[in-house]
Amino acid sequence: MVHSVNSHLVRFGIITDIHFSADSEPAAAMATAAELRACMACWKRNHVDFLLQLGDLIKGSETHKHEEFRQISSILKPFPGAIRHVIGNHCLALPRQELMEAFGLQTSFYTFSAKEFRFIVLDGMDLSVLRKPETEEERQILACFHAYPDMHDYCGAVGTRQKAWLQRELEKADHAGEKVIIICHFPLLPETTDQKHGLLWNHHEIAGLVSSSPAVMACISGHYHYGGYALHNSIHFVVLPAFVNRSEHPRFTCGTVELQRERMVVRNQLDEKLYDLPFSRSSLT
C-alpha cells in the first residue's frame, strides 16, 4: 500500500540496531542481507525522502568489524537518496574519525531541515569511556559513571560543547517557527528502556533541555532492542525496536515515518500503523 503523497510533508525510512555480523553462518548472513533488501524495497515503495539509520550499524566484532562495515555499506549503497547516520555505541568499534568519514559527517552531531521540520541529531557517545573529558563538567559526568557502574560503559553522554550547540539550535528553530524532531541513539527517558540496555548518561539534563523548547514535537531513539514509548511534557519519546531482534518482535523490522503538520505516523515494514501521534506543543499555535 502506497500512501497519498498529499497526506504528509515529510516521509522517511527508518531502521535501528542492525548489528550486522560478519562472523555468522553463511545462511544466516544471506538471510540478514535479504531482509535488509526487503527494507530497501519497502522504502522505495513508499517513496521516502531519505533514510534515517539510528545507530549500531555493525556488531563491532574485534576481528570482523571492518568486514562488517564493508558488507552493510554495500547492502545500503543502492538506496537512491540521502542516508542520515546516527553514531551508536557499537559503531565505535571502528575509529571515530574513520567512521565519520565513511558516514560523510563533518561533526558527529548535526542538524538538517526538511520542509517545516528541523532534525537535530545528537551524539550520545560524545562523552564516554572512549573519549577524554574536555571540561570540569565532563570530568564530573565521567566520575559519576565510575561511581555508578550500572550506568554501563557502553553508554555515554552529550558533552558540554554539544549541549551549548543544542541550546542554540533549539532557539533558532523556535524563532524560525520550525517543528523539531530530536534524534539520538540512546533513549532519553528511563521509562522507555530497561536496566540492561541503559540510556544516555545525562538524560535528565538533556530531556529537560529538550522539553523546555516549544519547538520540539518528538524524540526518536534506538538502543533498547524491544522498543518503548512515553509522552513527557507533550513530547512523544519513541524508541524503535532493533532490526537484530526482529525474530522476537516481527511487527517491526524497519519502517517509515510520516510527518504531517499536526501529527507523526510510524508504520512498519508491512505498512501497518505502529504509532499515530498528534502534536500538541505550543509552536503549533
**Radius of gyration over alpha carbons?**
18 Å
Number of contiguous helices: 6
Number of extended strands: 12
Give the number of domains: 1
Q: Beta-strand percentage?
A: 15-25%
CATH architecture call: 4-Layer Sandwich
SSE pattern: EHEHEHEEHHEHEEEEEE
CATH class: Alpha Beta
Under CATH, the homologous superfamily reads Metallo-dependent phosphatases
Main pleated sheet = 6 strands, mixed
Instruction: Indicate the mean pLDDT.
Output: 93
Tertiary shape? globular
Uncertain regions spanning at least 5 consecutive residues: none
Label the structural class: alpha/beta
Helix fraction bin: 25-40%
| CATH topological fold name | Purple Acid Phosphatase, chain A, domain 2
Notes on the structure:
This protein has 285 residues and is an alpha/beta fold. The protein has one domain (10-284): Purple Acid Phosphatase, chain A, domain 2. Helix content is 27%, strand content 22%. It contains six helices and twelve strands. The protein has helices at 26-45, 65-76, 96-103, 136-147, 160-176, 203-211; strands at 10-15, 50-53, 82-85, 110-114, 117-121, 179-184, 216-221, 228-232, 235-239, 255-259, 263-268, 273-278. It has a six-stranded mixed sheet with strand order 3-2-1-10-11-12. Strands 4-5-6-7-9-8 form a six-stranded mixed sheet, covered by helices on one side. A hairpin with a 4-residue loop joins strand 11 and strand 12. The longest helix has 20 residues, at 26-45. It is globular and about 50 Å long. The protein starts with 9 loop residues before the first strand and ends in a 7-residue tail after the last strand.
